[in-house]
Write a structure and sequence with these properties.
This protein is α/β, with parallel strands linked by helices. It has helices at about 40-50, 70-75, 125-130, 140-150, 170-180, 190-200, 245-260, 265-280, 290-300; strands spanning about 5-10, 10-20, 35-40, 55-65, 80-85, 95-100, 105-110, 130-135, 155-160, 185, 210-215, 220-225, 230-235. It is globular and about 50 Å long. The model has no long low-confidence stretch (mean pLDDT about 95).
């Protein structure tokens, strides 16, 4: 087994735009600042987890304009970028994120080649060569084919569609993914949509398909739903909140940092909360790159260990 974690997801360029308030329909508003950051669910998770000592392979399609600096940053953090594939007929995925002073956000996405992934060659090395395979944002028609291969090879699978569950997935494609999965990740709204699409009763109904449901709840911590009950996991508080972008990806990175060291799901969620607490203290999803020692230390200082 070469890697602990194979990550499938977006590797984006994030333009974070500060506005005094989110605009209403049919209105305009002046922005107060803009800056470009390295981002994407796949890129964020892979880089942050690797920084915390997890052996990670990233599988993601990018475009002709993908910055060599971003790839270098991933490699420097220890990420295996063998399957970070440039598709020259597309631009790199980009996201324009509008954020107000209260941390509310809205985004506009250019998917680049990730939108047409189902037409592109399968990238299976990350799945075949890893113990866990984590599917973030991306096309379920493409991911389900890779999930088939991973499941037949006896890999553990996590499904994490994030915000795309609201507009990329339907009942058929979501069912095709979760029936192969061991874990399901989502925030409260995303899990509510999964419940609706799969026609089950509440988050615990998803346990019909997976071993555990990891539900993040922002400032209220997280919930771990398992067959023998639901555990409430407390928040590890940041010193300050500057930007919420990438907090969820940092949570997942911390979670896998714990899982790779043999911890149970509850301890993994505590470590995930600690990792997320670092992420929100700086602007941009990859600006804070805590080590596992730092994440573990903060969790202990907050008294949750």
């Amino acid at each position: 087994m070469k890697h602990f974690l194979g990550v499938y997801g977006h590797t984006n360029l994030d333009y974070i735009i500060e506005v005094p308030r989110l605009p209403r329909a049919n209105t305009s508003i002046q922005f107060e600042g803009e800056r470009l950051y390295f981002g994407g669910t796949g890129g964020n998770l892979a880089r942050l987890a690797s920084r915390m000592g997890v052996s990670v392979a990233l599988a993601s399609f990018v475009g002709r304009d993908f910055p060599t600096e971003y790839e270098a940053a991933l490699k420097k953090s220890g990420v295996d970028t063998t399957e970070l594939r440039r598709v020259n007929s597309y631009g790199t995925p980009k996201v324009w994120i509008f954020t107000d002073p209260e941390g509310n956000q809205m985004a506009v996405v250019d998917q680049g080649p990730m939108k047409d992934a189902a037409k592109l060659p399968l990238m299976t090395k990350a799945a075949k060569g890893s113990e866990w395979v984590h599917f973030c944002t991306g096309r379920p028609e493409y991911y389900s084919r890779i999930a088939d291969i991973a499941a037949k090879a006896g890999k553990f699978i996590a499904v994490d569609p994030a915000q795309e569950i609201h507009y990329v997935y339907n009942a058929e494609t979501l069912r095709a993914m979760v029936r192969r999965a061991d874990l399901f990740f989502g925030n409260h709204n995303e899990i509510a949509e999964a419940v609706r699409l799969l026609r089950v009763k509440a988050a615990r109904g998803l346990l019909k398909f997976v071993q555990a449901v990891i539900e993040t709840r922002g400032s209220r911590g997280s919930l771990i739903h398992e067959e023998d009950g639901t555990t409430e996991v407390p928040l590890v508080s940041p010193h300050k909140v500057v930007d919420p972008t990438g907090a969820g990806d940092a949570f997942r990175a911390g979670f896998y940092a714990g899982l790779s060291r043999g911890h149970d799901f509850v301890v993994c969620a505590i470590l995930g909360s600690s990792a997320a607490s670092y992420a929100v203290e700086k602007k941009g999803p990859q600006s804070a790159l805590p080590t596992y020692r730092e994440v573990l230390g903060r969790a202990r200082k907050c008294g949750v260990f």
